[in-house]
Design brief:
Subcellular location: Cell membrane
Keywords: Cell membrane, Membrane, Transmembrane, Transmembrane helix, Transport
Largest sheet: none
Protein name: Carbohydrate ABC transporter permease
Radius of gyration: 22 Å
Family: Belongs to the binding-protein-dependent transport system permease family.
Number of strands: 0
InterPro entries: MetI-like, MetI-like_sf
Helix content: over 70%
Number of helices: 15
Shape: elongated
Amino acid sequence: MLLLSALYTLFPLLWLVTAATKDTGGLLTGDALSFKGFDLGHNLSELASYNDGVYLRWYLNSLLYAGGGALVCALISVAAGYAFDKYDFRGKEKLFAVVLLGVLVPSTALALPMYLLASRAGLVNTYWSVLLPVLVNPFGVYLSRVFSAAHIPDEALEAARIDGASELRAFWSIGLRMVMPGFVTVFLFQFTAIWNNFFLPLVMLSDQKLFPLSLGLYAWNSNTHAEPSFYPLVVTGSLLAVLPLVVAFVALQRHWKAGLAAGSVK
């Protein structure tokens, strides 16, 4: 059953790898699961040069949205989770309940209110209209509080305070380093969510130069019925779009696995 599940999961990726080597005729004939008529180099060249290299612009946009957004979001989430765990203040549990309530609200339900706020602030059709909403992740705050309780002993923070460290220095030099598996876990979750995000950019953006890969490939795919030559561009572009996710998970899997194991035990 595990083997069948793995094959079922990997089959779309296998199809994507072989289909990216086909020209338009090879894709439309339905013989996409073979390397016959290998044309990957031409597809990559067309992808990089089409419309003055707009695909590369989309790629950089996605790296900015996902990489920068996930990094800042993970830092904010870990700091908030640390504060909820280590400090006592009025209304702490009620405020944390509001955070948990935010986990239950689907992101699509917030798209219209966020658009109205961005419109009032003059941020629609800018990078900030996509970046700012992804900097907050209620589930990341909850997960970070769990990691903080499991990984950061109060005695270590008390020792740092006795040595004269400020609260910010104690968090940055001790707390953040101890909870690094949680930081990486939140980063990977948010990186994947932002990289695959479609609805928010669709609502916020109209300038193609600001599109992420998900929205740009959707725009190309919408033209395939009228112009079949877009098929190789969409398929090859989709294959390249998977690579950052694979690289991120492979490079950070040691911290990610440790984080998942600690969270599950807690």
